[in-house]
Write a structure and sequence with these properties.
Blueprint: H1 3-17, H2 23-33, H3 38-62, H4 67-87, H5 103-111, H6 114-124, H7 129-148, H8 150-157, H9 159-192
Length: 193
């Protein structure tokens, strides 16, 4: 275990997962479904990320998807989530309203989304697996804390504060979606050619 590597990976994953930026989405989800299973969402996110660390490329290749395609698809999901936040519209509507929000859209794609999974694949080429796992665990502790305290965060910020934060982070999320798309779209065309 390399402490310096762990800090570096933790910071990279923290920026990509961006759980502080997801607070408005988490609050919005809690208002829609009434309850968020913080522990379940955190554990499932961890399982997805650690599984992807070891099996990601093989799984994608097995089903005929390259990393670039995966990241571009993830950028579309993030893009539509951002539009919901900025415009105050509802794009993702299901016929059945879920009782809780733990797996979709919290664990995937919000926490363990295309951005974080693609980043994990990139980190795997450069760092030791044990250091990546440790960094994932550190990030998941923070994720759990934010999910668990979303009620208090909402009370502290207030409704108008949440609306302002939602719009601001919607723009940030939109920028992340555009960046993820722009970074991976050339790889799609290069891999085809």
């Amino acid at each position: 275990m390399d402490f310096k590597e762990i800090i570096t990976i933790t910071m990279v994953l923290f920026a990509v997962i961006d759980i502080p930026g997801s607070i408005p989405i988490i609050i919005d989800l809690r208002q829609k479904v009434g309850h968020i299973q913080s522990g379940k969402a955190t554990i499932i996110s961890g399982v997805i990320m650690i599984s992807f660390l070891f099996l990601g490329e093989q799984i994608l290749h097995l089903i005929g998807i390259d990393v670039n395609s995966f990241a571009v698809a993830g950028s579309f999901i993030i893009f539509f989530l951002a539009l919901e936040m900025i415009l105050g519209i509802h794009i993702f509507r299901g016929s059945d309203t879920p009782v809780t929000a733990s797996v979709v859209p919290l664990a995937f794609p919000l926490i363990a989304g295309a951005g974080s999974l693609s980043t994990i694949l990139a980190l795997r080429a450069e760092y030791e697996a044990i250091n990546i796992i440790t960094a994932i665990a550190v990030n998941l502790i923070f994720v759990y804390f934010v999910l668990k305290t979303s009620v208090y965060i909402e009370k502290w910020i207030g409704k108008s504060g949440i609306d302002v934060v939602r719009k601001i982070f919607g723009v940030v999320l939109l920028a992340i979606a555009v960046k993820l798309f722009a970074a991976n779209i050339p790889g799609l065309f290069l891999s085809k050619g």
